[in-house]
Amino acid sequence: MNPTAQRPKVIIIGSGFGGLFAARALAKAEVDIRLIGRTTHHLFQPLLYQVATGILSPGEIAPATREVLARQENVQVELGEVTAIDVEAKTVTASTLGVPRTYSYDHLIVAAGAAQSWFGNDQFADFAPGMKSIDDALELRGRIFGAFELAELAAAQGRHAEARAHTTFVVVGAGPTGVEMAGQLAELSRRTLKHDFRHIDPRNATIYLMDAAGAVLGTFDESLQTRTRRAMERLGVKVLLGAKVVDVDARGIEYLDQAGEQHRIEALTKVWAAGVAASPLARQLADQVGLQVDRAGRIPVQPDLTLPGHPDVYVVGDMAALDNLPGVAQVAIQQSRYAARKIRASLGGRPVTEPFSYFDKGNMATISRFRAIAEIGKVKVTGFPAWALWLGVHLVYIIGFKSRITTLLHWVVSFLGRGRSERNITEQQIFGRLAMDRINDLPQRAARNVGWTSSDEA
Ligand SMILES: Cc1cc2nc3c(=O)[nH]c(=O)nc-3n(C[C@H](O)[C@H](O)[C@H](O)COP(=O)(O)OP(=O)(O)OC[C@H]3O[C@@H](n4cnc5c(N)ncnc54)[C@H](O)[C@@H]3O)c2cc1C
Hints:
Layout (H helix, E strand, L loop, with lengths): L8 E5 L3 H9 L6 E6 L10 H5 L5 H4 L3 H4 L6 E5 L1 E6 L4 E6 L2 E6 L2 E4 L3 E3 L17 H23 L3 H7 L1 E5 L3 H17 L13 E6 L10 H13 L2 E5 L2 E5 L3 E5 L5 E5 L2 E4 L3 E3 L1 H10 L9 E2 L5 E2 L2 E6 L4 E2 L7 H19 L15 E6 L2 E6 L2 E4 H15 L3 H16 L10 H5 L12 H7 L8
Parallel strand pairs: 1-2, 1-7, 2-3, 7-19, 9-10, 9-15, 10-11, 17-20
Antiparallel strand pairs: 4-5, 5-6, 8-16, 12-13, 13-14, 18-19, 21-22, 22-23
Bound molecules: flavin-adenine dinucleotide.
The site of flavin-adenine dinucleotide has 32 residues, from helix 1, strand 2, strand 4, helix 7 and helix 10.
């Protein structure tokens, strides 16, 4: 590579779907790209739940960005958190381990995605972690497998109420992620672990899938919602709809039902799969160009994905609000490719004039092994054919041949057999990044409710 000062400088923020596909779409362009990512990997978020439940390893869904782009000579990959964007000065400031630096750009593609949102109750995060990163998935893996270990110990010592609470799992949010997570928890306890313990029967684990809305998979067709709910119930998942979470602590979760009555479930392991909030960079940009972010913190972009008065700044993916498009990978991929096409065209002096238009390739969600639902336009597919479709689509989009092969092997082990190759957990995961170690600091109320006291644990 022979970068020259004359080549336009493109900065891409983020190494997720938007960032990576934008960089690839500029592979042949005469530009110098700097891709700044907060992590060293590209993350395939749709399969995080499989890392959390021991099917896949982190490496399979999170290849190193540097490796993925190694052969693309016009890209420089850089680890760093972007802290500031100045659209007037056309600069981006990033920081790594507290060391800041500022770069200027000719074109900017912002694809910093979204984080989990606890709807203003960030204190819930300690006890009901979300699932947005590899750290999150590994923490959940530690909590899930750790919960069975603690239940075994409790049951061996005759503390059965405690064992029950340890093997009660609550998934909050009945969208695709929540459904997939609850389905996997059911399979894990009913199939994978059924012979592995001596004092508990993992098949008796209780799994709740809870949502404040009145439907499972609310964005799908009603017939698919009903089918999914029934399938979940057949798997033994208790579906609680119209259930609004009002409190979460180390030992349980409290919610209001549709009649406004408050209930408590004693459950050690809670998973938060509800709500996202766009990267704070969206608000920073909105403030600079006089726009308001929406309720999810997304910035409204122009039909060509740029900001008003700044044709050189594109915002794509989960951070951008346009035509009520959903926060899904296909939107981020297609938007990033469009932004890259516009940049390439501007270099050749043939500007793209048509606005971005989204081609909806459909939506799908897995329920359990061999069972999924898919909606492609008016066509609805369910059961095994939908699952086979899901498998194929995910294999195509997993980045890298190596990852595809090992993922397929792990799926054979888990779906044809009973095993899971990635059940290892570390002490740090068992005790969680933040919360599990607080278990010794039981709120008295929780201890009373499960009928044992802290001293029982000594
Ligand atoms: C658990 C889960 C399951 C999902 N399942 C599906 C599914 O089945 N199908 C589907 O289509 N979609 C699914 N999605 C949604 C899909 O993953 C997102 O819509 C998609 O990742 C959005 O792409 P993006 O590039 O906008 O953001 P992301 O892919 O989230 O990428 C954002 C990138 O920006 C980086 N970043 C953030 N802030 C900064 C900063 N300040 N500086 C530098 N870098 C930064 C992040 O580290 C990340 O690399 C799922 C999401 C989750 C969390």
